[in-house]
Design goal:
mainly alpha; elongated; about 80% helix; single chain
Length: about 60
């Protein structure tokens, strides 16, 4: 199985950064959940139920190969 090349890794990092800046930095759901339920709840929501969080997780999985 082929590993991730340096250029692929750089592209993945750029994609992650773009996703975080575009969707996560000013996310109202994340802010509301942090305020009402705490940081851990908001984080779990982002990873398991948010479509952007799922995409970030897939990028991370590719980077860890």
């Amino acid at each position: 199985m082929k590993g991730v090349t340096c250029l692929d890794r750089k592209q993945l990092y750029l994609e992650v950064e773009d996703l975080l800046q575009t969707y996560c930095d000013q996310c109202l759901l994340k802010a509301t959940f942090r305020k009402e339920h705490g940081k851990a709840y908001a984080h779990k929501f982002c990873i398991s139920k948010c479509t952007v969080g799922e995409k970030l997780k897939r990028c991370g999985d590719q980077l860890s190969k």
